[in-house]
Amino acid sequence: MYKISVVIRVYNEQKHIREVLESLKRQTYRNHEVIILDSESTDDTLKIASEYECRIEKIKKKDFNYSYASNVCVNLAQGDIVVFLSGHSVPVKTSFLEDIDNMFKDSSIGAAYGDVIALPDGSFTEKAFNAIGYLKNIILRKKNGIKLENEIHPGIFSCSNACARRELLLKHPFAPELGDGGEDVEVAYRIIQDGYYIASNPDLLVMHSHGKKFKDFIKEYRSWKVMYNNVLNYISC
Questions:
Q1: 161 versus 218: which is more confidently predicted?
Q2: Domain ranges of the chain
Q3: Do residues 181 and 227 lie in contact, with contact meaning Cβ atoms separated by under 8 Å?
Q4: pLDDT greater than 80 at residue 192
Q5: 4-236 has which fold?
Q6: Which of 40, 116, 145, 230 has the smallest CB count inside 10 Å?
Q7: How many whole angstroms separate alpha carbon 228 and alpha carbon 85?
Q8: How far apart are CA 113 and CA 205, in angstroms?
């Protein structure tokens, strides 16, 4: 039985942070801790978080980028497995953490990531796009089980819903040069290079969205491709 550290990077997340923490409170797996890393929120995020059994840590907003915040989270964590969620990533199943513990009993798995469906207040575009992706993965899951990946691609190990062995995250910290995005893909690459698989598991399902309508969603989708190319260039250097 692993100790699991759930780390949540937040900035002004009052809209959904209670849902995230309520979901974690209901988990069947009890050997876990919850760490909130706040970047100087100005809303009620921390007030809400203080109502729950979690550790609250803070960084300066000016210091925030994804790599820096994620590395701080890993260093704060005391668990064997680190689970990354955003302040608006709500685990759907009460067995979310139990499924993670069971999955890492396979010693060939170094990290994993799950599926995402839109929050109830997500846009129609987000709901449609994510639902199609989730249904596709459910079909593949029934056919092949958990997919073990040994090649990177856009979206692998996305840290809105991902987890990894802490020892590997300490060995391969998130690259500061990729702090604006793509840092999680680069870490996945390093873990694969160490001989581990990245597991894609649709059972690890969260609700996560930003409310972006079609035009903004397409713009974000294109930016993911740019970030992925930046990762490939970084790896090849």
A1: 161
A2: 4-236
A3: yes
A4: yes
A5: Spore Coat Polysaccharide Biosynthesis Protein SpsA; Chain A (3.90.550)
A6: 145
A7: 20
A8: 9
